[in-house]
Amino acid sequence: MFITELTKRDWYRIYKYLWRAQLLPQKMRICVKIVAILRILLAVWVLFPIVLRVLFLMLLRAPLTYYLSYYEIFLTIAVISLLIFYYPLLFWAESRKFSPKVFITLKQGTSLAKLKKIRKRYPTAYITPNQGMFEPPFNSKWIIINFEDCYLLVAKGKLPYNPKRYFIAFSIISYKDIKHTMTFCKQLEPVCERIINYSDVKLLHKDIVS
To answer: Where are the transmembrane segments (predicted)?
Structure first.
């Protein structure tokens, strides 16, 4: 059993790297990209005439007070903020939906009685996957994101009882909790689909230097 304690910042970074690795649900990615394009079009529509007018007035050496009204200044700041903070706000919103402080990953499947004992000891923890990390859900395989300080394991696919819906499950395992690295990796190989390498990045907040 692996017990990982996580902060809100850890979860923010987890969602950021899930996005980079294109592991978040496809429908969500499409919607986010459509909004991202719309925000760029909005920025061009709002800022282009303002910038042109400012440049024109600067050429005429008009007083600074003629350049922008307070409304235009506010609108410019709002649009630029949307351009800069769109993705950070998205990852922050995702972390608000799901960000347990204690994340427990079981090595192997366990009995209901043992599961109840774990739940009693860690009442607020999120336990995944219940069948064990070496048996990913619904016969899928893990996609492993390899960080400097931990593994992020992600399984995704269609739900067997509802093929129109997709699932995504993930586990976070800190290296310091792995006693026998060689044995662990050999066990993980058969259930691994691919490895994404971010081994030069520390994910967990308490160790962050990057």
So the answer is: 30-56, 68-93
